[in-house]
UniProtKB/TrEMBL annotation:
Record organism: Dietzia timorensis
Main localization, broad class: membrane
Top-level EC class as recorded in UniProt: translocase
Keywords: Cell membrane, Membrane, Translocase, Transmembrane, Transmembrane helix
GO CC aspect terms: plasma membrane
Subunit structure as annotated in this protein's UniProt entry: Associates with subunits I, II and III to form cytochrome c oxidase.
UniProt protein name: Cytochrome c oxidase polypeptide 4
Length: 138
């Protein structure tokens, strides 16, 4: 966790300095500020700041992880990581519906976006509740 925090702290600082320098230098040119690049750099800086803030927030609430020790072994991090459904079709369905909604947005076909949004809600419900109905009911 500490290594990831340092990476995103450094990346935030680097992108912030780069954004300021880019906006200043393009402002000095004869064409004035180049807004696309400046906006992209500012938004990248804010995204890295968001991730760094999240990592700092989580790090304050958890104990030290095995990967934070210099002499840690791979086996120190062994154990159960969670339950992942091995035979579920729902992640594929959710991805297919998201692609459908994205294509509807790209081609400005609002009826495809509307139908896809309804299908997305149904697919997410299927993904979340897959073990509450059918043969796998607990």
């Amino acid at each position: 966790m500490h290594a990831a925090m340092r990476v995103f702290d450094g990346l935030t600082l680097f992108l912030g300095i780069l954004a300021v320098a880019y906006i200043y230098l393009t402002h000095q040119s004869r064409l004035n500020i180049e807004w696309a690049g400046g906006t992209a750099l500012v938004l990248s800086t804010l995204l890295c700041l968001l991730i760094a803030g999240y990592l700092h927030f989580v790090n304050a609430r958890i104990s030290t992880l095995p990967e934070d020790y210099e002499d840690a072994e791979v086996s120190d991090g062994a154990g159960e990581l969670g339950f992942f459904s091995p035979g579920s079709i729902w992640p594929f369905i959710v991805a297919a519906v998201v692609v459908t909604v994205g294509l509807g947005l790209a081609f400005t076909n609002w009826w495809i976006v509307a139908v896809g949004a309804v299908a997305l809600v149904a697919a997410v419900c299927g993904l979340v509740f897959q073990y509450y109905w059918g043969p796998e009911t607990h």
